[in-house]
Amino acid sequence: MKRVFLIVLDSVGAGALPDAAAWGDAGAHTAYHISAHPDFRADTMRTLGYANIPGMEALGPVDAPRAAFGRCAEVSAGKDTTVGHWEIAGLPSPKPFPTYPDGFPREILEPFEAITGRGVLCNRPYSGVDCIRRFGEAHMLTGDLIVYTSADSVFQIAAHEDIVPVQTLYAYCRAARRLLIGEHSVARVIARPFAGDPGNFYRTENRRDFSLEPPGPTMLDAVSRAGQDVIAVGKISDIFLGRGVTQSILTHSNEEGMAAADLMVTKKFNGLCFINLVDFDQLWGHRNDVAGYARGFAAFDAWLSAFLEKLGEDDALIITADHGCDPASESTDHTREYTPLLVYGKRISPVPLGTRTSFADIGKTVCDLLGCETAIAGESFADLLCEDAAV
Known about the structure:
The protein contains 13 helices and 14 strands. The chain is of the alpha/beta class. The protein has two domains: 3-91 and 214-385, Alkaline Phosphatase, subunit A; 106-210, Alpha-Beta Plaits (2-Layer Sandwich). Strand 5 (154-160), helix 6 (166-179) and strand 6 form a beta-alpha-beta unit. The longest helix has 21 residues, at 290-310.
């Protein structure tokens, strides 16, 4: 293969993992629960074998799937963006990142306040939209920063763009990232700028993630080290701190991410185009918006039909997810789920891939398809897909 397009449907899980109850996620099934909405559509995905994936049969399997199909279990100790993407790229996280159900300790907040010259509001787990609704006016009156977390390992800073310019907020995030080391090495520091007036606040598109650097080699390193392209679309570059990335395309929505994919499929490059479609998670999953999630999936499915026709003879498309975020659950947090696995291409055999024991199998397979030597984790299934994958 000359090119691999790897699309992560952010949070579109495929059913609770065996250990889901230990994470508070018994019965989670993002795909099933959004499929119950009348606006849900998966016509193109079903032709690929989406409903032939184990645990997805209720969506209506087809007799002759066009793609190889299966699902992936997660071995990392987590259920968030960072550990999900790192594991996809061949770097599982056996040790959980720190979380703060009671808020961040003074040993972190005091130096943060000293560096920024601003106080802190909230400092506890909170839904992001509710957080700015609850503390936004106080922030505007005092200039204090809204600092909050979630069930994930995140240090989030929300600020009104009229009170704290976006670039200043990013500088505060970088300062927090430098403080959050050692036992407090959270997976991500996230800038959450917002705008509007009290009673009508809204988050803007200027979110940015400041991740830890991956502690070991990844698929991105292997592909770029082999002299091939690694094109990161959406928040991919942030998740890997830019390491191994040869070109970054910043997007703010599913629509922009799909437009970037449409552009890149027309370009001449050799290597990997790694795409994250973020709206499933940030707009609908975390807001328990089943209707929005269902419509968003239908929009992706409709777009996918035309995208498949644009793929060349030596292209492969892989569709997966990084975790779940079941919008039908009581919680607004991520859910511990299997992720779907679909692999399509003119030279790809539409075979069953079963249940893979790690997301890392994807990264290992990508490297094999592109002919890149690597020592990353995972068990490649490239030999099941085609006999001469890297030719």
